[in-house]
Amino acid sequence: MEENKIGRREFLSKGFKGIVIGSLALSSLDIVKLVARDKFEESEGTAKTINLSDYPELASVGGYAFVSKNVIVIRVSRSKFIALNNICTHKKCDVDYDGSSFECPCHGSTYDKYGKVTSGPATKNLKSYKTTYNPDEDTLTINM
Ligand code: FES
Asked: What's residue 2's pLDDT?
């Protein structure tokens, strides 16, 4: 009978350790993926190509994802993407995207999903970048 209790304790202990180790392993994979996604550099005059498979949010029309700290990509059709800098043109706050438009939390400027100003105080559109989609390789090149 005593053997059974010890066996059960060992079983529970090993099971708990397995759960903890498994959770840590999954967390590590998520961290590695996030770090990999953050490697995108925003350097003026350069082109950066991303694998769309790394951004499942962009798999469907209307999906969007930040591909770097301040560059958001929005899929507007099967083969067309928009890439915008999300820094407000008024006084440089980061604007928020809600899936259809941008709003600046600092002074309330708004922009449509193409980055065009829809209300001030900002008067200039968000900075946009030319994109080229390669359907054969499922990649998107963003010209900074
Ligand atoms: S910084 Fe965005 S509206 Fe002023």
From this structure: 47
Alpha carbon 142 to its chain centroid, in Å, reads: 15
Protein residue with its CA nearest to atom 1 in ligand 1: 91
**Model pLDDT for residues 11-43, shown as the tens digit of each residue:** 556 655 655 554 544 444 444 444 444 445 567
Whether a cis peptide bond, with omega within 30° of 0, leads into 56 is no
Residues of the chain with pLDDT under 50: 1-3, 22, 24-39
Gap from CA of 111 to ligand 1 centroid (Å): 11
CB 129 within 8 A of CB 142: yes
Instruction: Please give the distance, rounded to the nearest whole angstrom, from the Cα atom of residue 54 to the centre of ligand 1.
Output: 31
Nearest CA, atom 3, ligand 1: 107
Q: What spacing in Å lies between the alpha carbon of 129 and ligand 1's midpoint?
A: 21
Q: What is the residue extent of each domain of the chain?
A: 1-37, 47-143
Q: What CATH number should be reported for the domain whose range is 47-143?
A: 2.102.10.10
